[in-house]
């Protein structure tokens, strides 16, 4: 009978693909459920298949570590003596490792100890993790199960999972005995942190006068050249990633979307590391993180710009402001490989005609007007998606599109500009469309995202539509390649470079280029050099 290979599972309710694999029987005691289920984050079967292969390989690798921790290979003919089993984890070592849980939890609620916590102190008053069966028991010794207390049952699962993570991070076999010892230490440290937060919440303000608690200093002795013995210096204080982000956010006044995306990057880094202590981050940690991202199929550019760059920027801020003493991310780089044929290109004449003919036949204003506006202004998609009806104005005899930060965020100072409307748009009835729009926003069909921006939804809607027209070359960005095409046509038809920059919102290259004004009548004459295809 042929072996059935695992494959992505389609959730019938959400139409999203998942990794869904049954846990091997011998590992059930170490995993909180019988089936591992994880979203692959896509509805595309081809993408799902690739992501499944990566996730499944990583899952098998983790299970192999667990199996090696509790079983040994049975090779009767082996002539190589097996190494002796590793010494069991001591309670002292477990508490040293679990101290990170204490510090991380404490620091998270330090400034506001009265806010609702992940694990309220009330559940710890009748809670302990036994070392034998790894069950939660109350003070009378009765095992607490999910039916008795769901919150404590969840806490049990959390402590067990955290214990496995800590053991693997410290290269300690996650066997039953070690997990039991570590789970007891994790629970105890979490309990201590909660009770200390209770003291802060009750008004023991003298605790705030001291530094935020970190790991206890080691009292090892160091022989000094003079022969005298002094206590070794105190270890580094715990500094949470969140503290760095908050400081950077307050100083830089960055956009809400940037703050959101960069916080998510640190969330992914924290999930990879198993902690959020900036003082514990090493160059080796970042190298391993980079290797993991490469293994998942992320491009070098995405890793550099979307992941490493935010970490470098915030750590650089933290170093400059004395929050940390070292900056490991500065030593990490990644080589970008630009392969021939993969650079973004313009729409060629045939593709542009296909797109614009299809757009002219559309009733939906988004598909009808955005491609034509982009093709004859060279504007960015986000700039057009956020236009207001008031941004279409007449200056003298010239109708123009006004790109202004009042309508929404713009890329830079040069992005604010006035663009003459090409006669092809006027002849097609663009002004009639504007006058018929009774709302402040010109393209009401594009709903704003959580940051109030409409460009992201515009990219999704138009991207799928353009691909459906048969324009499938990955080097052609469905909308941005129209901006590339406009630049190509400017060169083809001899539009001066400084005028190109003024129309497209590029920064001028020299101070001299910024002198003087770009008269709207002159710009209108230049933009009319761009011919229509049909």
Characterise the protein shown here.
With 534 residues, the protein is mainly alpha-helical. It has 18 helices and 10 strands. The protein has helices at residues 45-70, 91-109, 150-169, 176-201, 206-209, 241-252, 256-273, 283-295, 300-320, 349-360, 365-375, 381-385, 423-427, 430-436, 455-468, 480-492, 497-504, 520-527, and strands at residues 9-10, 17-22, 35-39, 128-129, 136-137, 221-223, 229-231, 392-395, 398-403, 417-420. The strands form 4 sheets. The protein has a 3-stranded antiparallel β-sheet with strand order 1-2-3, covered by helices on one side. Helix 2 packs parallel to helix 4 and helix 6 (241-252) crosses helix 9. It is elongated. The termini are far apart.
Largest sheet: 3 strands, antiparallel
Contiguous helical run count: 18
Helical percentage: 40-55%
Which structural category do the helix and sheet elements fall into?
Answer: mainly alpha
Explain the layout of strands and helices:
Blueprint (H helix, E strand, L loop, with lengths): L8 E2 L6 E6 L12 E5 L5 H26 L20 H19 L18 E2 L6 E2 L12 H20 L6 H26 L4 H4 L11 E3 L5 E3 L9 H12 L3 H18 L9 H13 L4 H21 L28 H12 L4 H11 L5 H5 L6 E4 L2 E6 L13 E4 L2 H5 L2 H7 L18 H14 L11 H13 L4 H8 L15 H8 L7
Antiparallel strand pairs: 1-2, 2-3, 4-5, 6-7, 8-9, 9-10
Helix pairs in contact: 2-4, 3-4, 6-7, 6-9, 10-11
């Amino acid at each position: 009978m042929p072996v059935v290979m695992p494959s992505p599972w389609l959730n019938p309710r959400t139409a999203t693909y998942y990794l869904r694999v049954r846990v091997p029987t011998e590992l059930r005691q170490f995993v909180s459920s019988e089936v591992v289920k994880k979203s692959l984050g896509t509805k595309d079967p081809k993408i799902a298949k690739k992501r499944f292969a990566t996730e499944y390989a990583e899952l098998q690798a983790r299970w192999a570590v667990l199996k090696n921790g509790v079983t040994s290979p049975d090779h009767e003919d082996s002539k190589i003596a097996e190494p002796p089993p590793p010494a069991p984890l001591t309670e002292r070592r477990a508490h040293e490792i679990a101290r990170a849980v204490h510090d991380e939890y404490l620091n998270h609620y330090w400034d506001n100890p009265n806010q609702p916590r992940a694990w309220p102190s009330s559940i710890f008053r009748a809670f302990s993790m036994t070392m034998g069966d790894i069950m939660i028991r109350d003070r009378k010794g009765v095992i607490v199960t999910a039916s008795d207390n769901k919150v404590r049952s969840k806490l049990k699962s959390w402590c067990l999972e955290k214990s496995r993570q800590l053991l693997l991070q410290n290269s300690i076999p996650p066997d039953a005995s070690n997990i039991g010892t570590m789970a007891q230490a994790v629970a105890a440290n979490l309990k201590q942190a909660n009770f200390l937060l209770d003291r802060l919440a009750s008004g023991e303000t003298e605790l705030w006068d001291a530094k935020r608690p970190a790991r206890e200093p080691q009292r090892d002795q160091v022989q000094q050249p003079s022969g005298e013995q002094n206590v070794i210096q105190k270890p580094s204080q715990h500094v949470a990633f969140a503290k760095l982000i908050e400081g950077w956010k307050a100083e830089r006044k960055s956009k809400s979307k940037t703050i959101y995306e960069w916080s998510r990057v640190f969330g992914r880094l924290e999930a990879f590391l198993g902690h959020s202590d900036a003082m514990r981050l090493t160059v080796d940690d970042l190298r391993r993180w980079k290797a993991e991202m490469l293994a998942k199929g992320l491009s070098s550019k995405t890793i550099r710009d979307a992941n490493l760059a935010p970490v470098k920027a915030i750590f650089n801020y933290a170093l400059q402001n004395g929050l940390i003493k070292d900056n490991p991310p500065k030593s990490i780089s990644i080589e970008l490989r630009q392969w021939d044929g993969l650079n973004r290109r313009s729409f060629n004449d045939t593709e542009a005609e296909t797109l614009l003919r299809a757009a002219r036949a559309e009733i939906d204003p988004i598909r009808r007007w955005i491609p034509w506006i982009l093709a004859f202004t060279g504007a960015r998609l986000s700039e057009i998606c956020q236009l207001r009806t008031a941004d279409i104005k007449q200056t003298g005899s010239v109708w123009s599109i006004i790109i202004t930060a009042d309508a929404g965020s713009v890329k830079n100072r040069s992005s604010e500009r006035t663009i003459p409307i090409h006669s092809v748009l006027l002849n097609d009835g663009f002004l009639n469309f504007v006058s018929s729009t009774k709302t402040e926003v010109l393209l009401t069909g594009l709903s704003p995202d959580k940051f109030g921006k409409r460009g992201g939804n515009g990219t999704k809607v138009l991207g799928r539509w353009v691909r459906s027209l048969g324009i499938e070359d990955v080097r052609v960005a469905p909308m941005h390649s129209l901006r590339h095409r406009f630049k190509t046509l400017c060169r083809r038809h001899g539009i001066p470079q400084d005028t190109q920059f003024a129309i497209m919102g590029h920064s001028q290259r020299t101070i001299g280029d910024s002198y003087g004004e770009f008269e709207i009548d002159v710009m209108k004459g230049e933009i009319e050099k761009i011919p229509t295809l049909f």
